[in-house]
Design a protein that fits this description.
- The protein is α/β, with parallel strands linked by helices.
- It has a single domain, classed as Vaccinia Virus protein VP39 (Rossmann fold).
- It contains 5 helices and 7 strands; from the N terminus they run H-E-H-E-H-E-E-H-E-H-E-E.
- The chain has helices at 4-14, 33-37, 51-63, 101-110, 139-148, and strands at 20-26, 41-48, 69-73, 86-92, 112-123, 154-156, 168-174.
- A 7-stranded mixed β-sheet has the order 3-2-1-4-5-7-6, with helices on both faces.
- Strand 2 (41-48), helix 3 and strand 3 (69-73) form a beta-alpha-beta unit.
- It starts with a helix and ends with a strand.
- Bound molecules: S-adenosylmethionine.
- S-adenosylmethionine binds next to strand 2.
Length: 177
């Protein structure tokens, strides 16, 4: 069972502390990010491609009596929400696992409202990353992606995360109004 206190602390450290109306947890998995986000938002939508993850996540939400989270089994490559729906989009360790990380990024941006925040954790490409696939990002690539999509860019706590991993970095930006 994942440690909720640790996850909550991590989520609260990287998500700007304000109240959100609608938050998207893209690729929510079985873990507890969505539960922590539910403390900051009126409503959280958790989306994941895996039904098994969805069932576990929904079970956890039920156990903790969180009734402001809904879960959809769907792909981030075609998010079933209109443009500019969410004022917070949070996706930890997901886009680099999809078959088209750039499309996943564009979809996450598309559903973000002006003034809303996009918080991502992605795999880090280093001099030691020999896997040629595109889904390892440098911080500079991520900054370009954020800025060309009209977002501010902030690099948070590079090379760390709730797993003290050296292979992820966390970025955050606000969509210009
Ligand atoms: C490393 S896990 C991270 C889970 C969760 N965000 C967390 O922090 O614990 C990656 C998740 O991405 C999901 N995923 C992979 N491709 C996806 C896609 N195209 N659309 C939605 N979710 C996807 C997987 O099912 C898995 O739950």
């Amino acid at each position: 069972m994942p440690d909720y206190a640790k996850t909550r602390e991590h989520v609260f450290a990287i998500v700007p502390q304000q109240h959100y109306h609608l938050a998207l947890n893209g690729g929510c998995g079985t873990r507890m990010n969505a539960l922590a986000l539910a403390e900051l938002a009126d409503k959280v939508v958790g989306v994941d491609i895996s039904r098994q993850s969805m069932n576990t996540a929904a079970g956890l939400a039920q156990k903790t009596l969180k009734n402001n989270i809904v879960f959809n089994q769907a792909s981030l490559l075609g998010i079933l929400f209109k443009d500019e729906t969410f004022d917070l989009v949070y996706s930890w360790g997901v886009i680099h696992h999809t078959v088209n990380p750039d499309q996943a990024f564009r979809e996450l941006v598309r559903v973000l409202k002006p003034g809303g925040y996009l918080v991502l954790a992605v795999y880090l490409k280093t001099r030691l990353t020999f896997v040629p696939e595109k889904h390892f990002y440098t911080t500079e690539q991520m900054q370009r992606l954020y800025e060309t999509h009209g977002l501010t860019f902030e690099l948070l706590n590079p090379h760390t995360g709730r797993f003290k991993s050296t292979s992820n970095f966390i970025v955050r930006g606000q969509m210009k109004s």
